[in-house]
Amino acid sequence: MKKTLIIGSTVLDIIINIEKLPTTTEDCHINGQTMSIGGCAFNVQNIANLFEVPHVFCSPIGTGIYGDYVASQLKEIGLSPFVRVKDQDNGCCYCYVEANGERTFLSYHGAEYTFDPTWLDGINMEDFDQVYICGLEIEESTGNKIISFLKENRNLQIFFAPGPRFSLIDKKKLDDIFKLSPTIHLNMDEILTFTKTETLEPAVKTLYSLTNNLIIVTDGENGSYLYDGEHLQHAAGIKANVVDTIGAGDSHIGAFMASRKFGYSNIKSLEIANQISAKVVEIRGSLLPADVFRQIIPKLKP
C-alpha cells in the first residue's frame, strides 16, 4: 500500500462550552472549559493512524506556550513533531460549543499553518499516491508553496477540504488547485455559499465543472453525498447523541481516504466515513478513541 501525505496544522484546542454565542456587550457565564490537541490535519492523521494506513504527517510546530503544549501532547501519544519552527509561535483555536453541539472557531494562527517544501526533502514522493490539504493553510502566505509542491508532484491524488472560509481564499490560489483536479470535501453550507446556489444539485455541478473530480458533501444527520460528474449518490446519516461537532468533518474525510486505500468503493467509503463521524460527534473534542473505533470498524486488509 502506498503512503498518504497529510499536510497541515496541529494546534491547542481550547473548548469552551456555552448555552449560546453571546451578542455584543453581553456578559455570559460558560458551562465548562477543556484543552485538547487538535487541528484539521491532526484529526485526519488520527483517523489514518486508527485505520493503520501508512502516512507521513507534515505538521510544523512553533514555539511559545502553545507550541510546547502541542509538542508535549504529541509525545504522550507517541508522535514526534515533524519540524519545530524556531522563530515563530504556535497558535491556538478557541472552540465555542453551544448547547446543541455546534461549534464556532476563533483561531490565532502561528507557525502551524505555514509550509516549506524543504521539510519534505529526502522523502521519495513516488512512495505516495494521495495527499490531504486544508483551506486554512492555502489561505496563508505560504499557501502558494503548497500549490507549487502539488504541481511538482502530479502523481498525488489531492483531497482538498476548503473549510468554512472557502469563499475567502484567494481566487488565483483556488483556480490553481482546481486545475489539479482535487477531490473536494466540504459541508452543505460551504458548498452552497461558495457556488451561490440554493440547492445541492446545481451546487455540485457548478463545483465539478471547475475540478472534474469527485465532490463530497456532508450534511450532518442527513448523511452525505457524492457527485462524480454523472450521478449524485447519497449515504444515509447515522443517528448520534451529539456532544460537539469538533473534528467531525476532518474525521469524515480521513475515513473516506483510508477506506479507499483498502479498496472500498466510493459509496461504501462514504458510508464508513458516516459511521466514523457519527461517533466523533458523540465525544468531547475531536479524537476518536481506538477502542470506540474498533467497535465499529473491524480489522481491515488491503
UniProtKB/TrEMBL annotation:
Which InterPro entries is this protein grouped with? Carboh/pur_kinase_PfkB_CS (IPR002173), PfkB_dom (IPR011611), Ribokinase-like (IPR029056)
What is the superkingdom listed in this entry's lineage? Bacteria
- Keyword terms, alphabetized: Kinase, Transferase
A GO molecular function assigned to this protein is:
kinase activity
The record's listing under Pfam families reads: PfkB (PF00294)
Q: Which residues form the Carbohydrate kinase PfkB domain?
A: 1-286
Q: What is this protein called?
A: Carbohydrate kinase family protein
**Protein's organism:** Clostridium yunnanense
